[in-house]
Task: structure prediction
Amino acid sequence: MTQSLYQLKGRFWIESPQGTFLGQGRVLLLERIREYGSISAAARSMQMSYRQAWELVNSMNQHSALPLVQSATGGKGGGGASLTSTGEKAIELFWAVKQDFDAFLAQRSENLEL
Result:
């Protein structure tokens, strides 16, 4: 079988009635929050401002029936953030859909001719 000269490429995101809910960047942010236990540390690791990261988290939380991230305000022991079970499910759902999406693009790219 000869390889096609062309390949389909694409990106997807999940929208709610209010707008963008989840995309790859947002999911990566959620994974970093899980890893670091902090929105600010997650933002730094992605070379993103804390404000931008907080706005993305706030948007995801508002677009979901249940919050994806819960945070504690700073103080003597410091603040922090963690994923809720809904946040964990959102990550799992996104990567499962991405796997199906990538498989679809690869299958449709086979023998793609003009």
About this structure: The two ends are 17 Å apart (CA to CA). Helices lie at 24-36, 39-45, 50-63, 85-109. The CA atoms of residues 35 and 103 lie 28 Å apart.
